[in-house]
């Protein structure tokens, strides 16, 4: 498959990790890209051998993933910051309403730091949280600080998990199994969040 993590890693190597993470966190269409799976798989391959081909060093994996994620986060924030005033000036519609935008702004005023850092670890949310922070008016310096912090923690943690997996099984033999397993596990936080939101909606309706 064109966007499979294994194909991207074999074809583009460490550079591809940075580019994929940049697109995934910086542009909304990047939500379909397997940034987290790619980083875990690259970390697993780094356990096998030195820096060549599909076996990059762990340090290079962390550096590429961190730089791509941080740069993409900054781009997403800037795009959201530019779009924010125009969204607030628009009349209410199906997708946008002033009340929703005001709630977004209030959320990032109160909880923005947690959203930027923790959102890195939730599929789909890490693509949306940076532009949402820009739309919500989160201060640029505050966002940049915690974007760097969150990106660094995410890159080190996810790549290290992959490195540990590489020490337990043969990644060359079970690459597809590893990829599917990572994708499945990465959906757990999202499913838990959806469940929590539905529970809140039911309690509010009651």
Protein architecture, described:
This protein has 8 helices and no strands. The protein is mainly α. It has one domain (5-205). Helix 2 packs antiparallel against helix 7 (171-186), helix 3 (58-89) crosses helix 5 and helix 4 crosses helix 5 (125-135). The protein is globular.
The proportion of residues in beta strands is under 5%
- Class of secondary structure makeup: mainly alpha
Major sheet summary line: none
Rg value:
18 Å
Separation of the first and last Cα atoms: 46 Å
Number of strands: 0
Stretches where pLDDT is under 50 for at least 5 consecutive residues are none
Give the rounded overall mean pLDDT.
77
Instruction: Specify the number of helices.
Output: 8
How many structural domains does the protein architecture include?
1
Overall geometry comes to: globular
Helical residues, percent: over 70%
Secondary-structure element series:
HHHHHHHH
């Amino acid at each position: 498959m064109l966007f499979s993590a294994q194909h991207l890693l074999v074809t583009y190597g460490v550079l591809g990790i940075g580019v994929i993470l940049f697109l995934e966190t910086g542009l909304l269409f990047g939500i379909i890209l397997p940034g987290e799976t790619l980083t875990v798989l690259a970390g697993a391959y780094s356990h096998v051998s030195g820096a060549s081909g599909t076996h990059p060093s762990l340090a290079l994996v962390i550096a590429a993933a961190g730089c791509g994620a941080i740069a993409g986060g900054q781009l997403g924030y800037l795009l959201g910051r530019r779009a924010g005033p125009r969204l607030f000036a628009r009349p209410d519609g199906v997708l946008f309403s002033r009340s929703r935008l005001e709630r977004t702004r209030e959320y990032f005023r109160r909880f923005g730091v947690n959203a930027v850092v923790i959102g890195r670890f939730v599929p789909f949310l890490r693509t949306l949280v940076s532009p949402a922070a820009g739309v919500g008016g989160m201060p640029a310096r505050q966002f940049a600080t915690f974007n760097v912090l969150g990106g660094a923690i995410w890159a080190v943690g996810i790549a290290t998990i992959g490195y540990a997996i590489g020490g337990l099984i043969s990644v060359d033999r079970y690459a597809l199994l590893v990829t599917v397993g990572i994708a499945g596990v990465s959906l757990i936080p999202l499913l838990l969040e959806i469940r929590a939101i539905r529970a809140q909606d039911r309690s509010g309706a009651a």
